[in-house]
Write a structure and sequence with these properties.
Helix 3 (34-49) packs antiparallel against helix 7 and helix 7 runs antiparallel to helix 8. The relative contact order is 0.05. It contains 30 helices and 19 strands. The termini are far apart.
């Protein structure tokens, strides 16, 4: 039996072949696996030609050598007996040389294997092939591969056109499936590449966010000092009007710089989808006033006149995210002042009620440089400056207007702009806000705002209120921080409130104190970065305690990690408020007023502060900004000295612990120098704080070699400063009255202290400690100092254990 005898049969089956082809194409369209469709093509060709093996060889030149590799194979039952050619088999270069010319011309290699060349014969005889047909498969004018048909039983001579037509038709079908397979593989590859690119973009965005966060952390520290210290002085007394105005400008300038830092982080949060509005009731005049005072300095010496339009019947209060509304106002005014060198800036605010809501309309117009139509379309694009040719010395991140647009849209509003080169611009914003009441702003406040006197009146009122600091002896606070000096710093700042304050050095101790509930604290100030258990973990465990007190006691995040957006993170973790370090006194006051103050108890416990300050010589110490240090504690030098004394002792202990450091303890080292940095800033030891910060940054980037090399010098300089501070403290106490001397503390007092600790009676323990401290002891083995420190930290368990042993030994 030979192939010629089968030609009539093949011809009679052409219609059947066409039908099968159509069926196959329908299968492909129906979405069957492309591998399955290719296999169907090969099976169809095998049955039509009545052969034993159908192979698909694909060209490959990835390694620079052109070759054919076996990719797929179909075997008949008879072919299975002959055996399969291994998938991945490569045709030898000797055979390739003979076929290259033929295939490039589209010729077919066919016939009995015995009639082929020796190299071809050796290739096919190895796999028991008697007759073979090789059809080159072309794709985009190149040889994509080879389609081979093997007969392992008969020798065949193929020269009939009908046979070739059938084979070519099947070959086209096969190529169609192959091309679709390639396309799908490319799509899959593209999808994977896109996924990888998106992952890389996300990683890059995360890296950007981390960089911006770190940058913010470093910039906020000096800005907090500028804002905090100027605010502290403004709140004081005895300032001339000129000094007060200048300090007010410093305060506003610091706030403006802080807003620039926040802008960069805001856009990062918006892009990451992490920006959340925080609505509350607010006063419109305060927002207008603050937006003006934050930006009016941009006028400088320019001949620019600012006017304010505010209807007297504008509602006094609205409900919305006041911080973001003020940010929108400020950004529009800032933009107007920046691009107006002379002429007018008009600021208009109005409100129209709409049921339970109202539309707040803000219009800022100027006679500045204007914007051409070509640039208006890019006006709200991130990091893009408009009219660069007229930008001059304008300071800008290019983020003000893009942030404004996104904030407006988040509030369900819209922003529009009309502008003409050389004639100025008009920005109009409409925002949805909650309606509170019909109480109007009124003519007097409008007059003050238009005369720019509202800020002065508001500041005077604030200073008056704060200068009469409320007394809160009924309040009891728990301060948790792993650095003793930080505890003393905040204790000093809270001193004017005359509250009862307990301290813990570890988050775990705070959790146990809340769990035991021997004292119900009015509020808890919790540090973030602490070893063993950080503040977030401690708060989580406190909130999981199944008592109403644990679930609801106000907890304030007390941390140097003062990044924009971190306040939201802390609130989500169970905190009620956020207090950044270095501490802004005004913010501390606000937190005390909101979360600690109880007006009813205040009336019951009102009392007067008394006591005299100690006399002292003028103080000086290299590396210590004593003047600013005292101001941090509202000019109470006694409190400052007490804090400094604690700082010296505790810093010495920390330095002792970090004299040696290895790679395993690098995180602990970083926390230790972080504590030194914060506590040093708290007492105005700025040089040591800066040195500690350098070492902290090295620890954060795991630069062990840098720390290993520079830590000895850091320790040496730190000890040198501590010694100078100790010498200054000795000079300070030159007029201290002499104490009576005893060998050891009175045992009856120790028993009384023991009983007070057992009952968790802070008033009693404080009173006993005061009696014990009235004497100097020659042979107490450090017991007095140890008792004083542990009573301050409320470590009653340790005190009980020690005193029980002393009393028993009696």
């Amino acid at each position: 039996m030979n192939i010629q005898e089968n030609i009539p049969l093949i011809k009679s089956n052409l219609i059947s072949i066409v039908n099968k082809t159509a069926s196959l194409l329908l299968d492909i369209q129906a979405g069957e696996s492309l591998d399955t469709n290719i296999q169907k093509c090969m099976e169809l060709i095998g049955h039509v030609t009545n052969v034993d093996r159908v192979n698909l060889w694909q060209s490959d030149s990835d390694d620079g050598v052109f070759k054919f590799v076996l990719k797929r194979e179909w075997l008949s039952k008879k072919g299975e007996l002959c055996g399969a050619i291994p998938i991945g088999h490569i045709i030898s270069q000797d055979v390739m040389k003979e076929w290259t010319g033929k295939f490039s011309r589209g010729e077919i290699v066919k016939g009995p294997v015995e009639e082929l060349s020796k190299t071809e014969h050796d290739l096919f005889a190895r796999y028991k092939v008697r007759s073979v047909i090789l059809i080159p498969l072309h794709l985009r004018d190149e040889v994509w591969g080879i389609f081979s048909i093997d007969d392992c039983e008969y020798e065949r001579n193929v020269d009939d056109n009908d046979i070739l037509n059938v084979l070519n038709t099947a070959g086209l079908m096969l190529m169609s499936a192959v091309i679709r397979t390639e396309q799908e593989e490319k799509l899959t590859k593209s999808a994977l590449q896109l996924k990888e690119m998106m992952a890389a973009a996300d990683a890059a965005n995360e890296a950007k966010s981390v960089f911006l966060a770190n940058m913010s952390h470093e910039m906020r520290t000096p800005l907090n000092a500028i804002i905090g210290l100027s605010g502290l002085v403004i709140d004081g007394e005895g300032l001339s009007k000129e000094d007060e105005e200048n300090l007010g400008k410093i305060y506003d300038a610091g706030s403006t710089l802080l807003h620039l830092v926040n802008d960069i982080l805001d856009i990062s949060k918006i892009e990451a989808g992490k920006f959340v509005l925080a609505p509350r009731e607010y006063e419109i005049p305060s927002l207008i006033n603050d937006s003006i005072t934050q930006n009016i300095l941009r006028i400088g010496s320019k001949p620019v006149k600012l006017t304010l339009d505010l209807p007297e019947d504008t509602p006094m209060c609205l409900f919305g995210d006041d911080l973001r509304v003020k940010q929108i106002m400020s950004n529009l005014l800032s933009n107007a002042f920046k691009y107006t060198n002379e002429g007018d800036v008009n600021y208009s605010v109005s409100c129209k009620k709409a049921g339970k809501l109202c539309w707040l309309t803000i219009v800022v117009s100027d006679t500045g440089t204007g914007i051409d139509k070509e640039h208006i379309k890019n006006l709200f694009t991130d990091y893009v400056h408009i009219n660069k040719s007229v930008k001059g010395n304008v300071d800008s991140t290019g983020l003000g207007l893009p942030i404004t647009k996104r904030l407006v849209e988040m509030m369900g509003g819209r922003i529009s702009v009309k502008s003409e080169i050389g004639k100025g611009s008009v920005f109009t914003v409409r925002l949805k806000q909650g309606f509170v009441s019909d109480a109007p702003v009124g003519p007097e406040i409008v007059r003050q705002l238009q005369g720019f006197n509202y800020f002065a009146d508001k500041r005077d009122k604030h200073a008056k209120n704060r200068s009469k600091r409320i007394k809160l002896p009924y309040a009891r606070l728990l301060i948790v921080d792993d650095t003793q000096t930080n505890l003393d710093v905040i204790k000093g700042m809270l001193k004017p409130f005359e509250m009862q304050i307990d301290f813990k050095l570890r988050g775990r101790d705070a959790v146990e104190a809340v769990r035991e509930e021997k004292v119900k604290y009015t509020a808890i100030f919790m540090d973030h970065m602490m070893p063993e258990m950080d503040g977030i973990e401690a708060v989580r465990l406190i909130r999981e305690i199944d008592t109403e007190y644990a679930r609801n006691v106000p907890i304030i995040a007390f941390t140097a990690n003062a990044l924009v957006g971190n306040s939201d993170m802390f609130l989500e973790k169970g905190f009620q408020a956020f207090l950044p370090k270095p501490i802004d006194i005004k913010l501390l006051d606000d937190i005390i007023w909101k979360w600690v103050r109880d007006k009813k108890l205040e009336k019951e416990c009102a009392h007067k502060k008394n006591g005299k300050k100690r006399q002292h010589k003028p103080l000086s110490c290299e590396g210590l900004d004593i003047e600013n240090g005292i101001k941090k504690f509202r000019d109470d030098i006694d409190t400052y000295i007490d804090v400094l004394k604690s700082y010296v002792g505790n810093t010495r202990m920390i330095l002792e612990n970090i004299k040696t450091v290895n790679e395993e303890k690098l995180p602990d080292y970083g926390i230790a120098v972080h504590g030194i940095k914060g506590s040093s800033r708290g007492v105005a030891a700025y040089d040591l704080a800066a040195a500690a910060e350098v070492m902290e940054m090295a620890a954060k980037r795991d630069d062990y070699e840098y720390i290993k090399k520079n830590n000895p010098e850091f320790i040496k300089n730190a000890y040198k400063f501590i010694h100078k501070a100790e010498e200054m403290l000795k000079r300070f106490y030159y007029e201290q009255p002499k104490k009576f001397i005893k060998k050891t503390p009175d045992k009856e007092l120790l028993k009384e202290l023991l009983e007070g600790c057992r009952q968790y009676d802070m008033d009693r323990t404080d009173a006993v400690i005061s009696k014990i401290k009235a004497y100097e002891y020659t042979d107490d083995g450090g017991l007095t100092a140890w008792l004083k420190e542990n009573v301050e930290l409320s470590n009653f368990g340790e005190i009980i254990g020690k005193l029980e042993k002393i009393v028993k030994d009696e």
